[in-house]
Amino acid sequence: MALHAGALAVLVVMLYPLAWLLATSLKPAKEVIASLDLLPSHLEWSNYTTALDGVNGVSVWQLLANSLLIAGGAVLGNVLSCSLAAYAFARLRFRFRGPLFAFMIATIMLPHHAVLIPQYIIFNQLGMVNTYWPLILPKFLATEAFFVFLIVQFMRGLPRELEEAARIDGCGPFRSFFQIILPLTRPALITTAIFTFIWTWNDFFTQLIYLFSPEKFTLTLALRSFVDASSQSAFGPMFAMSVIALLPIVLFFLAFQRFLVEGMASSGVKG
C-alpha cells in the first residue's frame, strides 16, 4: 500500500508541470503571473484562437507543417543512414573497422556547439543557410553516433546463420541488409525514430542559427517570437501554442511507446 501511495505521489509531481501548462493556456493574461492558483477563474478560449492565428503573418498550420517536415526528414535520414552504418560495423569485415568504430563512439562526447561554427561556415558557403537542408542533410550522413551504437548492439545479437543462408541463395550485402537484417532490427529503428523526432522537434538553438525568414519558422521558433511580435506580453496565447506544439510529440510517443523498451532492452531475436 505504501509503495502504491509513493508511486502515485511521484506520478502527481511528474504530471504537475503538464497540468499547469494546460491550465495556464486557458487563463486570462492577468492571472498567468498574478495568480498562483492552478485552475483559472474562467476559461479564456481566445488564447487558442490567437495562437491558431500564428505569428508574423504565418499561421500555426504553416508552422506545424514546417516542424513536421524537418522532424520527418530527420527521422528518415537517421533511420536509413545509421542503420546502414551500423550494419557495416556489426556484420561486415573491412580494414580499420575497430579504430573507425572507436573514433565514431568518441564523437558522442564531442559537444554539439564545438562543431556548430564549422558546420555553419560550410552550409553558408554552399548557400544553404535559411533553408531546411542544414537541419536535415546531416541526418542522412550517419552523424548521430549514439543511434549507430544502439543499432550496432542490436544487430550483433542477430544470428549470422540468417545471412549465411541468404548468401548461399545468392543475396549480396545490400539485399541481405534490406530483406533480412532491417526487418529484424525494427525495435531499434523505432527507438531511433522516437528519439530523433523528439530531439529534432525540440531543437531550438540549431533552428535559430539557420532559419531567418518567418515563413520558414517552426513551432519552436514561433514560441520565442510570439511574445516579441506583440507590444504586450501575451502569455496566454504563448502557452496555448506550447500545448499545440506538445501534441505531436505526445501522439508520436503514444503511437510507438510499446516498441521503446523493447528496442532499448532487446539484444537478439525473440521467439
Automatic annotation (TrEMBL):
Its main location: membrane. GO terms for biological process: transmembrane transport. It comes from the Bacteria. InterPro entries: MetI-like, MetI-like_sf. The keyword Transmembrane helix applies. It holds the Pfam family BPD_transp_1. Belongs to the binding-protein-dependent transport system permease family. This is Carbohydrate ABC transporter permease. It comes from Streptomyces corynorhini.
